[in-house]
Amino acid sequence: MDAAHGRISQNQEIEARSEGEGKDTMMWNPEEFRAPELLPFAQTGQKFMRATAAMQAHSVRALLRYQIEGVSFLKRRFEDDLKLVEELTGGDEFVDAFDVFVNFVQNATSDYAKEAGKLASIGAKLASETAGQVRKEAETTMNDMAAATLPA
Question: Residue 11 and residue 137: Cα distance in Å, rounded?
Answer without folding.
Answer: 33
